[in-house]
Design goal:
The chain is of the alpha/beta class. Helices cover about 35% and strands about 25% of the residues.
């Protein structure tokens, strides 16, 4: 595969801490109006994340040519260095002086309850990262600042570059009119089953009706695989059994990378979705969004075992 893919979305740091107790034992319901608590977190890790970062990482594992399009802060040097070492094109990453890279701070307790805080930082300025003049076989507009998502979508549409609209964590930002506007620009919609229900409720249209006006709609269903809607038909894509279920963080991004690799390789929609399922199953067996590192041969072996097809030479 020689065609590049523009991966528009967020790049972020995730700081994950573990409280070796239970929040419910320290938060008093009758004093919630004056809440003041502190938790000792002896275990902590920092992960590279963000939708654009995760998709680009997985696409590179497959041998693709991702070009992440994101705004980052002054603290992003190690992230950019990491991608340069992986030979991921960083020419479309823009450092916004005086800002931090988007980051999420998550504290998890022994019940897997979470308290999280998200700082958007440089992500809020993503609309300033102008794509005019960019060339690619495909692109994706993944969760980012709302203004940035629309700016990228408009520029891709004007340039005639087909793109996937991935709603994801940006779901609360889009009302029915926003969704209709974005669906009118995109060629493909990818959502999980919950997001699909929200879109149907907000637009008043079914996934089948939406798919009739696009090249395809892909609805992921976790352990049940995925549903592909294209050319007036709905095809159930069987799941791939994961070696272990460790951490779902970033599974959707891995899935999108597989789909994009298939499309830029000239594969059918069905085979592209099959590869996407394989990539999701590989990711879920590893903790963190970018810590899995299978070789291309290992990915190919899992693809052949699951569906009887192989990666391009």
């Amino acid at each position: 595969m020689t065609a590049s893919v523009l991966v528009c979305g967020s790049m972020a740091f995730d700081t994950i801490a573990v409280f070796e107790g239970r929040f419910k034992e320290h938060i008093l319901a009758d004093r919630i109006q004056s809440l003041s608590v502190s938790f000792l977190v002896p275990t902590m890790r920092k992960e590279f994340g963000g939708c654009a970062g995760n998709i680009a990482y997985n696409l590179k594992l497959l041998g693709g040519q991702p070009v992440p399009v994101a705004t980052v802060g002054d603290d992003a040097a190690d992230y950019i260095e990491r991608f340069n070492k992986l030979q991921i094109d960083t020419s479309r990453l823009r450092v916004m002086p005086g800002t931090f890279t988007a980051q999420c701070f998550i504290t998890t307790d022994l019940d897997d309850s979470q308290i999280a805080a998200f700082h958007p930082g440089a992500m809020e300025l993503s609309a300033q990262n102008d794509l005019t003049g960019a060339k690619a076989a495909w692109a994706i507009v993944a969760p980012d600042a709302k203004a940035g998502m629309f700016a990228h979508a408009e520029r891709l549409h004007a340039a005639g570059i087909p793109f996937i609209f991935d709603l994801g964590q940006a779901m609360p930002l889009f009302d029915g009119a926003d969704l209709e506007r974005m669906l009118g620009l995109a060629q493909v919609l990818t959502v999980n089953d919950y997001e699909a229900g929200v879109i149907e409720q907000r637009t008043g249209r079914s996934m089948e009706q939406i798919a009739a006006q696009m090249q395809a709609v892909v609805v992921t269903r976790g352990a049940q695989g995925a549903t592909l809607l294209t050319e007036g038909t709905a095809v159930q894509v069987p799941p791939v059994q994961a070696a272990a279920v460790v951490d779902p963080t970033g599974c959707g991004d891995s899935h999108r990378a597989g789909l994009l690799y298939g499309l830029t390789s000239g594969w059918s929609w069905l085979d592209s979705c099959r590869l996407a399922n394989v990539m999701g199953s590989i990711k879920i067996a590893s903790r963190g969004p970018q810590n899995h590192a299978p070789s291309r041969a290992e990915i190919d072996a899992q693809l052949r075992a699951a569906y009887g097809i192989s990666l391009p030479a």
